[in-house]
Automatic annotation (TrEMBL), chains A, B, C, D:
Homodimer. The lineage of its organism: Bacteria, Pseudomonadati, Pseudomonadota, Alphaproteobacteria, Rhodobacterales. One of its GO terms (cellular component) is cytoplasm. It comes from the Bacteria. This is Acyl-CoA dehydrogenase. Residues 132-208 form the Acyl-CoA oxidase/dehydrogenase middle domain. Residues 15-126 form the Acyl-CoA dehydrogenase/oxidase N-terminal domain.
């Protein structure tokens, strides 16, 4: 067990789940970290199924969603998801991974009883993966960080909606059993739940990307006259951006949780290496150049953890937490990049090989600084907020 | 009131004091920030007395020590001391300043009833300032970050101790009414309480330093055959380093608290400037180059605050908190340096003038990265800790 | 002599002057570095005169301007000015300081023979100081980094120009014997040479600023119906910004040269300290935490030097060098800030005292990141340039 | 042609070669950048051969080695190798790649006429690849950054040497036609030239690493009773470390050259993207958050280039350049990491895909900060140098 993780202020029920998850990940998931079925586009479906079966058997499948459909608080969720992230494969085995975690959360918050009935159960029990269709190709001027640029359209045709457009960076689309699609109608943005695969949703290609932890990778998708029955709209027409916001802050934060876990593990590996490996007459850790890096890691990891719990507490008050999750996302992703980079550096040549997960964690975190809004977009919206607050105060 | 400071998790009694302190500092202390009696060696004694009189009248003198001698918890203390720091003069006016705050804390923890009776009351009511004599001149190989190098000696002579040596960087010694002196006997380090001034304790000079907030500045001292009655020893002979540790962690953390307050204020000033000043056709804040700096400040300030409360909670469990206060000291001082630097930069030419406190805060924080252990010394001891933990775990 | 400075590629005549300047600064100027006549607003006039007399006697007065009015190339100037900066007082003693160096350069380039006759000789021989009146107060929306915001006006009245406005941050105005004033006419910006002091040019106050090396400090000025004979206009009416550009790039670069010298010296002092001071059983330099900082300094100093020579070479081709001097200014000022900061840190408590120049150099460099265009303004104009170049290439 | 690269100070013959190389790489190599034969362990042998055939046909094969065996100066080599690096495949196509470039250089400097005759021709004409066997596995305490830890042994047996040991991170060993092996005899370190493959040199596995530009990848090797005829020793017995030094500085610098080229190209791609991609109503480049990153890239790239030429000039004087190449390696690799990171970030989601080389360059540069001595090892040796210089000066 990692003795540096916060336990004060975490509920007993969450700590119990968290401990179970940590024990499971360390004992049963870690041995798969060099499995040959891990590919450039993520673990194979077979491996994913095998890991989920282990999670199910260990009683840690979707552990943050309680029997009967209740959901841990965000603070409790943090305690659990951080531990599930101690291996890059952990979130998959425990089904706390993106984009499923966020999709389940959104459906739980916004979905009608009928839609929940039809989709949510299969998601929670891990029997299928899901995808979230939002980002669009840059080369066509589609929506990236600026959602107002969305080009995918939906229009009513009888009792169906007809959707057309292209999406990119759709994580896990290849192999998913359901998806949430965002498209623009005359009334504004809409969201739809669809079964997958569907012949009208064509995977053009799966991108080669720097990260490799997510089954199905990230796909470019063409949606060509996809007909969706009207009752598969999520919520109301025109409210798509509002729902995206509901999903956004907690999903963003859950990324922070999982990757914090991964970096804690990378730091353990680097620490072990630095204590065993000799150079110039003493273990690496006794060289301040290395020891200081480990010390800096400890500080960065603690700060990341504190930011996550702080933001979780804000979300637990029922506040939207847009600003706070932006702050947390920037602080955590940038801190974890520093941590991962130092772990690689401490390990020298060994750090850039796939012999340990350190190298993978470094690559994943690099992508994380862009996923769910690049650092710069969050700073931009924080600056806007600072201006609005100043104005309000200046007028008061 | 600054609406970004944490209030959740702070006790009502502490919040009440904190609000009173904030209101006092903003309304009554800030107007003195350009007082001509502010010199390079800190505020004059006259100004200091005037400010303390205001603090006394406002009922915020030594606000973290309760009637009857009780002390707020560290978490509560943080809420109060952060607000007292909203002006560089605030800690002086509220008597929450260094080194007095730490000296009172130490005496409260370790002092015999007799010593408390004789010294503590006068300290708590702000009627005299105190000094802590520990650091020694580098050019003679004296004790700096490495206390084992201490050269000041004390030896028994009848019922007195005789102390000889030189000290440097003794904050507030010039003008202090009492002091705590550290010296080495055959049994190890000892601490003594002495009345000041004393002819055997000669102020050789007051250093010109980059900071300027502390009355009396920082002095170089020669101690020449100082005779101290045996009953003025603090605690037991040979336990001096242990007592220094008792003082160290909370004193270090209280520095973080006060300077966080100062940087929050500097950020308010920079924010105001950036919203009013135009350049290239729009207010500075609308330039991402400036707006992003303010956004980064908000994140750094929040992280600093969270680290302080985290460490305070550890201390409130009764743990020594050596590691945690090292982590907090490094994280907070480095974050505040970034904040102060950005505030200067956002304000352009205006930022390097004394027209606002931003320039002073920048200088103070620069020194803070060295006071109470430079960043590197804390990283060094963290690295040692990491090694010890690894060893313990490897053997288990 | 500093053996790390480049000599390859420097002309023999420049190296000869440079060596003489270095020897002079080290032997004759350095002893004045703790002179009591050094004040918060810079050296007193008496001290300045004494230093200049020494420089004159040593044959290093305005050493980059040759007998007969010739000027060293920018590359040669760099070799000399870097050495003159080895003490913060060196540029004053050698009269290579700002704003005089830039004013002489501008007058040499743009001035009519009559104006040169009247003003330049007295500037070059160091018998008077000069000032450059450009920046305006922010609180009135005047010109700072954005010169288009200039509010000071000039209008013809008979054979005189009448100038009105306010200026701020006017270095050395207090005590100067002449000045160059920038003001806006109907035809655009104009520049005027004026004798100082003049009752119509009132020094409202000298600012308290973080830096303290320049005699006369930085003043706020009110210009009230100043009448200037028409023949004291520098060049043509409406060409003021063009002339400002002529002055800008080399003046900016000469700042880099002088402060590089100062940081080289600070690094020497820190190196000496780190080799003598013991901590935890060995000299500081043997602690990687300190030794690495010195190593990083060496790299930063070398890069700063190379950028200066690179930009100097561009200017020596006759190119305006606007982009290159922006790049050099950002690179050098930011690198020197890191160097100065590390020097302070290496020296611990000693680093924040005025016992060595390290503390002053740190403060000066902080201001340098804002003088002559803050880092952000240069990045902004570089980004514009990058866009223009892309466009030109895309269209080609 | 990239118009920002230095041409002043480069000889006409070098510029001519450099231009030819740049034209070749841009026109003929770039189209292969998404070739399916690029694998995780580098380009396939087939692809490598195809590229080298193109280079040969274009007259740019080993362009820094002249007809008749002469070698461009290091300054000239820089001009050429930077351009060859404009594609990650360029150094392969032009045969300026590691480890061949360094092996050819070493053999050219140290090899006997017989050894040159036997090996050098085939290396220069690109008909075979070579490997350099130095680094040893960490888990067995072998030589990494600290060469004194070398465990591979060689002993005389008749007129042969018998070599035993294990090596790791042996770039290009898989598929190489010859190798240089380092081993320890009773007299000290020795170097041997061997034909490859050889049954006594077993490739245990090719490591999965973060980089992927080098054919053959990086292998773990077991050397088991390899018998090498005595006349295949390079130079003298016991002089191995001296020869390693001969190779080291220029090889290290040539890494800087090639990767600078790659980062220049990545910056071109990011610039193009930032000018085309819209967000929030304007092209990315008009957002200071992006524009400033491109500006910082331009500065970093220029500084990297200047450091390379500076170090090249030192080597061209015949000096060993150990310190200078350490400084250049640290400065360039860290600067290029920042550049590559900013390129990724400017491109958002697109930046982490393999659709452009930006993602690969980021990965390669990450490894480069460790290859040929991690940053920390160079800082360590610089700190030692600083101490030695101080001592020499203090004693003088």
């Amino acid at each position: 067990m990692n003795t540096h993780l916060e336990t004060a202020g975490i509920s007993p029920r969450a700590l119990e789940i968290a401990d179970k998850v940590e024990a499971f990940v360390r004992a049963e998931v870690v041995p798969f970290e060099r499995d040959p079925r891990l590919g450039a586009h993520g673990p194979s479906e077979e491996l994913a199924d095998e890991l989920k079966a282990l999670g199910r058997a260990a009683g840690v499948m979707t552990p943050h969603i309680l029997e009967g459909g209740g959901h841990l608080t965000q603070r409790e969720t943090a305690a659990v998801l951080i531990r599930s992230g101690l291996s890059p494969l952990g979130p998959l085995a425990c089904h706390t991974c993106a984009p499923d975690e966020g999709n389940m959360f959104l459906l739980g918050k916004v979905g009608s009883p009928e839609l929940k009935e039809r989709f949510l159960g299969r998601m929670v029990d891990g029997s299928m993966r899901s995808a979230f269709f939002m980002t669009e190709p840059a080369e066509e001027g589609g929506a990236g960080s600026d959602p107002s640029m969305m080009q995918t359209t939906c229009r009513m045709d009888g009792n169906h909606w007809v959707i057309n457009g292209r999406k990119t960076y759709i994580t896990g689309a290849d192999g998913a059993g359901m998806g949430i699609i965002m498209a623009k109608s005359g009334d504004g943005a809409c969201m739809f739940l669809v079964d997958l695969p569907d012949p009208a949703i064509r995977i053009e290609r799966v991108l080669d990307t720097i990260d490799s932890s997510m089954p199905g990778g990230h796909a470019v998708i063409a949606i060509d006259n996809l007909r969706v029955p009207a009752d598969q709209m999520l919520g109301e027409a025109g409210e798509g951006f509002k729902y995206a916001q509901v999903r956004l802050a907690p999903a963003r934060l859950s990324h922070c949780m999982r990757w914090l876990g991964a970096c804690i593990r990378a730091h353990e590996i680097a620490t072990d290496y630095a204590n065993r490996r000799m150079a110039f007459g003493k273990p690496l850790v006794d060289h301040e150049g290395v020891g200081f890096m480990l010390a800096e890691n400890r500080i960065d990891l603690k700060q990341a953890e504190l930011m996550i719990y702080w933001c979780a507490d804000v979300l637990d008050t029922g506040a939207p937490g847009t600003t706070e999750s932006s702050m947390a996302k920037v602080a955590v992703s940038e801190a974890l990049m520093r941590v991962a980079d130092r772990c690689v550096q401490c390990m020298g040549g060994q750090g850039v090989t796939a012999d340990t997960i350190v190298e993978q964690v470094f690559r994943e975190i690099r992508a994380f600084r862009i996923y769910d809004g690049p650092t710069e977009v969050h700073k931009w919206s924080l600056a806007k907020k600072i201006k609005r607050e100043w104005k309000a105060q200046a007028e008061a």
